[in-house]
Amino acid sequence: MQVEETVTPYRRVILIAVIVGLIAGLGALFFFEGLKLGTAFFMEGIVGFQLPKEGQNLQDIAQWAPPDHLWMILPVICFGGLLSGLLVYTFAPEAEGHGTDAAIKAFHGGKKVRWRVPLVKAVTAVLTISTGGSAGREGPTAQMSAGFGSIAADLLGLSTRERRLAIATGVGAGIGTIFMAPLGGAILAAEILYKQDFETEAIVPAFLASVIGYAIFGLVEGFEPVFGPGVTSWNVSQIPFFILLGVVSTAVGLIYINTFYGTNRIFKKVFSRLKIPNHFKPLAGAFLTGTFVLALAALSPEAAIVGLGSLGTGYGFAQLALYNMLPVGVLLFLPFAKILTTSLTIGSGGSGGVFAPGLVIGGATGGAFGSLLHLALPGLIPAESVPVFFIVGMIALFGAISHAPIAVMIMVVEMTGDFSLLVPAMGAVSVAVILIGQSTIFREQVLNRSQSPAHRDEYMIEILQDIHVGDVMVPRDRIVAVSPEDTAGRVLHLIDETLHSGFPVLDKEGSLVGMIALDDVRDNRINGEHDELVEGVMSSRVFTVHHACTLREALDLMTEHDIHHLPVVPADDPRELSGFITRTDIMKAYTQKASGSAGRRHRTGSVTLIESDTAAGKSSGDEKKGG
């Protein structure tokens, strides 16, 4: 199947958005139902853990209880890690780790996604999260939606650019759907690909795709926000404390990033050194996670809550915090426990997202900060303000480390249903984003569009169109030339002496009559000797450019005829050599311009072909022919 070329571009974009929206809605729905079934079977059925759940009202969530068989956490989580590792590293190694980064990589690389990847990602993420692994459901949903979007692009015969659009739209629609945050998800599609830029083309189709996905998912799961509303309040006098929370969130966010990738490096190094198959890395991470939780449970009841809260997505414990039901001691240690269990689970190669853990880590950081302020300044920071600090902490920390502050801010307020929190969140996240610098939880992000392979050609063309041959050519007085009466042996000597691989050929009057390169000499030698004259082996079919030609025109000419250097001649005299330009000169000029060096502007010129009756053939070379 292939989309007809007569389909207008805007119709193709609409088609992409509709298809991706359907994929995101259905994919998120089946994945979410799989998670519910898996969690009910493993955590509730085997472990006996009555998990607190996001969205529960105060009365229902108060019924949560620790596991009846706490020790069963270890075999259950190890089973999930083992099976997940075997599936991932056997069938789709690219499905390891957090899916959002894989989707970002697919966008910038423009590569096709193998058909098996979304399915493997879905199954292994369900196994990882439902057995207690600390991971989020947004990363797998993003990778699944982006992967199926890429597959749909292949089936429809879409271009590489349109496949990238489908991938970006899939990321936003998938995350927006699973979080019931369509607006934030759509903006995330454009924002999460870069550290300091937006993929503007993805915003509008992501709006449509997110709405479609949200509608499909909501028709089955309901349209209520992810988190149930608690009693919250804040006032303008607290804004300095929210800004200070941005500083604290940055510090914890950096700990999260460094611990996560440090753990990843350790696992790779140890398994490589011991020559243990990667299939067992998630099992090792799961074993350490389960052991850590059991060790905390042995310390005290509060430590047990910290350990249990560090399992799975952690959203149920975030809901408890929004109801002010977690003690300050739990909030203080939960961020660091969650950082460790997430690093062990996903950093070891387990399948899941870093988004949900990041929100819980940020929320617990904000909740702990707000609780301490409440204890120190109860008049200024009442108990009703502590959940606000929890929500703002979510936004500040993950908005900073993901370099998607606008999308995360909108998503979290959609998830909580309280848009009045945008004001304190803006203060906190702006400070956090400034302080975080270039550090990111998504290593596949690039700085901006100019550094993305998806747009590099666009920027290169734009830059090369702005520089002209006359600005960068080697001038006539620096060009090494030969005459038709010179021998091929002398040409070889010049090649050895100058390290240039080709030279213009000038007659006695100084007119350009040909080009000779190393290949010409090699291809035309007689009995291994090089006594033949240049006139007999040179290429008299010479492509030239004028001073006013753009570098793009020159490069296009070189590419079309597989040559690496061009003589520069005046427009009114194609045999008067006035300069020389090579691919190396063009690349140097591009690099200088891209780093801020401006070229002079001239009118656009044209290219010329010179032919003489002396000899036929084509020359090739690759280096500058001047001093």
Give descriptors for this structure.
627 residues, mainly alpha, Clc chloride channel, CBS-domain, 3-stranded antiparallel beta sheet, two-stranded antiparallel sheet, 25 helices, disordered N terminus, disordered C terminus, H(+)/Cl(-) exchange transporter ClcA, chloride
Q: How much helicity do the residues have?
A: 55-70%
Q: Which fold name is given in CATH as the topology of the largest domain?
A: Clc chloride channel
How many strands in all? 7
The pLDDT mean sits at 86
How would you name the CATH homologous superfamily of the largest domain? Clc chloride channel
Specify the structural class: mainly alpha
**Which regions contain 5 or more consecutive residues with pLDDT less than 50?**
1-8, 597-606, 612-627
Give the second-level CATH assignment, the architecture of the largest domain. Answer: Orthogonal Bundle
Sheet-strand content, in percent, reads under 5%
Instruction: Outline the biggest β-sheet.
Output: 3 strands, antiparallel
N- and C-termini, Cα separation? 56 Å
What's the CATH class of the largest domain, please? Mainly Alpha
Going across the biggest sheet, name each strand in turn: 1-6-5
